[in-house]
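Bumping with the actual sequence this time:
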Amino acid sequence: MDQSPQTLDAARIIPKNVLEGDTPRVIDEWQLAPELWNTARNEIDTRNAKGQFILTGSSPPTDNITHHSGAGRFGRVRMRPMSLSEGGKSTNQVSFSNLFEKGFNPSGNSGLSISEFAETLVIGGMPAIFYYSEKSAQYFNSS
């Protein structure tokens, strides 16, 4: 939605048209045209099929008053920062599933020095800055 003014205009004027096409249909930054929420909800009811739309966005819409809750129609997925494993900064010797195995004794070495580990903590796990230098990440995180 944020890449094409024409698509954004179309979504605001006739939101149903943006929902037409192959499914699942991904609509990124849908919150720029909040009309899409209720239109998608109605279209889901009409089609009576699961997995029709994937609405993604980097922020919530500004107007939540006019939106139906979407109960029974939408599932929400909260995105989290990347883990050390996803960023290639772990040996993966300890896994979440291992923690629940009987007799598992978590130990191991991440392969990072204390200063590298501290730098990784400062940078954080957001994909956009995961590979920045510490100084660049500090600037990014403070703005």
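The tokens above came from a reply further down the thread. Residues 1-79 form one domain.
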